[in-house]
Write a structure and sequence with these properties.
By secondary structure, this protein is an alpha/beta fold. 15% of the residues lie in helices and 40% in strands. The protein has one domain (3-96): Sandwich (Hypothetical Protein Aq_1857, Chain: A), CATH 2.60.300. The chain has a four-stranded mixed sheet. Strands 1-6-7 form a three-stranded mixed sheet. β4 (57-61) and β5 form a beta hairpin.
Length: 99
């Protein structure tokens, strides 16, 4: 399962507690462009979603909720989501995680 760094958890919680974001919302990770389970694109995007998709995996960590599109679950299984502030914007990045 995708793991979150403390910085990513804090950034996601900050996004989800912003005015106008409904309770139960999460940050959804989706591929850019069409994909299938045997071929994952290298480009991903994140968006705020009111609720998970029917087949999304839901990751919850200290107030942060992440919805992962099912076609990405295998690809993200050994990854670590991190976040940085870049010019007052949050930038997410993926890295490998040590086991």
């Amino acid at each position: 399962m995708l793991a979150l760094t403390p910085d990513a958890t804090q950034a996601i919680e900050r996004i989800l507690t912003a005015p106008g974001v409904p309770d139960g919302a999460g940050l959804r990770i989706i591929p850019v462009g069409p994909t299938n389970e045997s071929e994952v694109t290298s480009e991903l995007q994140v968006e705020v979603a009111e609720e998970p998709g029917e087949r999304d995996e839901v990751i919850e960590n200290d107030g942060a909720r992440v919805f992962v599109e099912d076609s990405l679950c295998g690809y993200l299984d050994d990854k670590l989501l991190d976040a940085d502030m870049v010019e007052e914007r949050i930038r997410f990045s993926l890295g490998g995680r040590s086991t």
